[in-house]
Predict the structure.
Amino acid sequence: MFSGIVAATGRILNVTPLADGVRLAVDVGTLDLSDLQLGDSIANNGVCLTVVAREGNTVQFDVSRESLNCTVGLAEPGEVNLEKALRLADRLGGHLVTGHVDGIGEVIKFEPIGESHELVIRAPAALAGYIAKKGSITVDGVSLTVNWIEGRDFSINLIPHTVEVTTLKRLAPGSTVNLEIDIIARYMERMLAWRDENSDNEGNPA
């Protein structure tokens, strides 16, 4: 689990093809590696990946073909947002993030408004119903609050600090981003669906 509070930005240096996916070599920048062990989880642009090797400040991750098909930003060299997995004693500064991307969004607008920026993203139709005004959403691994949503389009206000310390500063209309909906919305949908499917059982569990 993660919090969506980016700890550092890194850069994918190399992408090596594997039989069913790729191996990434990532320069993790200023990310604290003092307690890093093989097998640990680090979110790269919101995607939970397992550390398979390390040499100095370069950490390697294997990414399956399925993960590549469901995400963006991991198939070629470039910047990535990084966050180590939470410990139970850590502060939850953002919201609970699983690191399992639900879909890919398209940036419709990214413009400065005063000192901040407005980011408008078009979500896949299958995800739009899970996004709520003032609710939480993860964009490329960054925990953010939804200002408004109309149909499939939703708006986020990015404060200067968020723009400065994440890769979101590179976005432009037409960019694609990894989206993860709030885990609470996932469970609520399942609970309601289960209730409707079993409405004839008088509320008794199967």
